[in-house]
Amino acid sequence: MTVGAQVKQTVAALKGSRATMRLYAGHNRHEEARAAYRQALDIVDAVLSDLEKRLQEIEQEEPQYKGN
After folding, report:
1. For the segment 44-57, what is each residue's pLDDT rounded down to a tens digit?
2. CA dist 28 to 21, 25, 31, 57, 59, Å?
3. From residue 40, how far is each of 18, 48, 67, 68 by CA, in Å?
4. Strand positions, DSSP E, 1-68
5. Cα 39 from Cα 59, distance rounded (Å)
6. How far apart are CA 38 and CA 26, in angstroms?
7. What's the pLDDT tens digit per position in 7-46?
8. How far apart are the first and last CA of the chain?
C-alpha cells in the first residue's frame, strides 16, 4: 500500500470516527461527556485538516497517487 493510499485510508477512518463522536455528543445527557466529545472533535478536526493538507502535498509531489 502506498503512502498516499494509507493517508487516504486514515482520513476516511477519522471522518467516520468524527461522525460517531458527533452522534454521541448530540445524544449524551451529561454535560461533562458532551464537553469531552466536543474537545475530542476539535482535536480530530485539526488532525484531519493537517492530513488533508499533507495528502494534497503528496498528490502534487507524486501525481501517480492522485485519485487512488
Report:
1. 999 999 999 999 99
2. 10, 5, 8, 38, 39
3. 9, 12, 29, 29
4. none
5. 30
6. 10
7. 999 999 999 999 999 999 999 899 999 999 999 999 999 9
8. 11
Give the list of residues 6+ apart from residue 5 with CB closer than 8 angstroms, or none: 65, 68
Domain spans of the chain? 3-61
Contacts of 62 (CB under 8 A, 6+ apart): 4
d(CA 10, CA 24): 21
Q: Are 39 and 16 in contact (CB under 8 A)?
A: no
pTM: 0.81
Closest of 55, 45, 53 to residue 17, by C-alpha = 45
Distance CA 6, CA 22 (A): 24
